[in-house]
Amino acid sequence: MKTTTAVIASLATLSQLACATYLESTFANYFSTGPVATNSWIREANTTLVLPKTNSPQVGNLALWPGMGTSGGDLIQALAISSDNGETCTTESGFWCITASTLESEQIEGTLVPAAAGSLVTMHYKYNDTSSQYDQTVSLNGTVVSKISTSSGHAQGWGTAIECQETECGFVPGHKYINTKLTMDVADPDYGQTLATYNATGELTTADGGLTWTVATIVIGATTFSAS
């Protein structure tokens, strides 16, 4: 989703962005981690979004995404989009459009694929040492459906977002991410102290001194985007 460098730079502290507006984008509940220690970065991130029902009414341009802000100023953010403005992969109401995506100076997207509520959408980001790019894949119920690779520097943090653009997006149901795993370049034993949440729960833990961090279930509360 289009956003500003302010959002990218502060992905690790999304608490500062709750209900704040940038370029007609409004953000709500989140689970946010980062920044990494100065000697490390996130090599790999994997999570599975259990798609809720679409927003009600299905208006505006709504996205759910887990993102990584990078040292290159990019935002790696696979998307689940609910839209009424024509940026869609299906004309059937009640469906999401999912895609691999990175926000650089403009949005770069892979294939857009429709997905129903209840589907499991796995978003996987992995740094490729050979190409110096992040390889990104999005899988729908276990099958890869969208992918891109981008030169983005090194990931400095990881977090979830609910983003509404263009008009009030109505009621957004609560939803969850499962089996989240972050793998650092070198162990970052204090990374758990960077956790910030807003109307969200989840326990960020490590069993190997901070090389890998996991969250079994992230629960994001429901929210409503409406005119003030």
For the record, what CATH class applies?
Answer: Mainly Beta
Any idea what the radius of gyration is? 16 Å
Helical percentage: under 10%
For the sheet with most strands, the description reads: 12 strands, antiparallel
Q: What's the overall geometry? A: globular
Given helix and strand content, the structural type is mainly beta
- Distance between the ends: 23 Å
Query: How many structurally independent domains?
Result: 1
Counting DSSP E segments of at least 2 residues, the number of strands comes to 21
Percent of residues in β-strands: over 45%
Mean pLDDT: 89
Query: Low-confidence parts lasting 5 or more residues at pLDDT below 50?
Result: 2-10, 12-23
Keywords: Signal
Signal peptide: 1-20
Give a quick rundown of the structure.
The chain has 228 residues and is mostly beta strands. It has 1 helix and 21 strands. It has one helix spanning 5-9, and strands at residues 21-22, 25-27, 30-33, 42-50, 61-69, 75-77, 79-83, 95-99, 101-103, 107-109, 113-116, 120-128, 133-140, 143-150, 158-165, 170-172, 175-184, 196-198, 200-201, 212-220, 223-225.
